[in-house]
Structures are given as structure tokens and as C-alpha cells.
Design goal:
By secondary structure, this protein is an all-alpha fold. About 55% of the residues lie in helices and about 0% in strands. The protein has helices spanning about 10-15, 25-35, 40-50, 65-80, 95-110. Helix 2 (about 25-35) crosses helix 4 (about 65-80) and helix 4 packs across helix 5.
Length: about 120
């Protein structure tokens, strides 16, 4: 039996209802495979919480990798969600551009994500 050729209807269905991204519910897996990075247990808990909770609060501490993780989670979100939107805030614009967006630029380059960061 000869396999049938894809028809226009198949293409329309595929474009209207694309298959979900394989990492849509696995930010830890996305960070591991796309960025080659390993998370420590606290970062994994934060990342997994983001999948099932609309809002996630992270206690503040110095040097625990919050900005690093936030940047990678923003990259995961942009790549895996059908209509992504990311808002970032900080007490000063210098903290955003000097820390968070610098980390996001690194993750963007490493994962070869589409688009540009200005």
C-alpha cells in the first residue's frame, strides 16, 4: 500500500492546532537540554512551580542564582508558549539591563532562540 500524500486539510489542521512544544511543562528539562545547564534543588523547585502556578514569589538572598534562573525561565517561556509575553521589573533600570537582561542575552545566544534582544 502506498502512503497517501499530505493533503491541504492536514496542513491547515497542523497550522491551526500545532503540537505543543515538548518542553511546555518541563522548564528544568528545557534548561538542561537547550542550555546545557544544571539547576540546584531550589532553582528546580522554582522552575517547576512556575508550570502550575500563575504567580511565583522567590525569597530574596544574595548570590543564589535568582536573576540567572529568571533569565533562563524567560527564554523557556518565550520558546514554549504559543503567544508568549514576559514582563520584568527591578528597583532600577541598571539592575534590569546590567543583570537580568545580560543573563537573558547569554541564554538567548546559547539556546539560539529566534528574535533579538535590544
Amino acid at each position: 500500500m502506498t502512503p497517501r500524500k499530505p493533503q491541504l486539510a492536514d496542513e491547515v489542521v497542523r497550522r491551526l492546532w500545532p503540537a505543543p512544544h515538548p518542553y511546555v511543562t518541563d522548564p528544568v528539562g528545557w534548561i538542561n537540554s537547550r542550555l546545557g545547564a544544571q539547576l540546584w534543588s531550589g532553582q528546580e523547585a522554582i522552575a517547576r512551580s512556575l508550570v502550575s502556578n500563575r504567580h511565583v514569589a522567590v525569597p530574596s538572598a544574595h548570590g543564589c542564582g535568582k536573576d540567572w534562573l529568571a533569565a533562563r525561565l524567560a527564554g523557556w517561556w518565550v520558546e514554549t508558549q504559543p503567544d508568549p509575553f514576559v514582563v520584568s521589573t527591578a528597583p532600577t533600570s541598571a539592575q534590569l539591563s546590567g543583570v537580568l537582561w545580560r543573563e537573558l542575552s547569554r541564554a538567548h545566544k546559547r539556546a539560539e532562540l529566534p528574535g533579538t534582544i535590544t
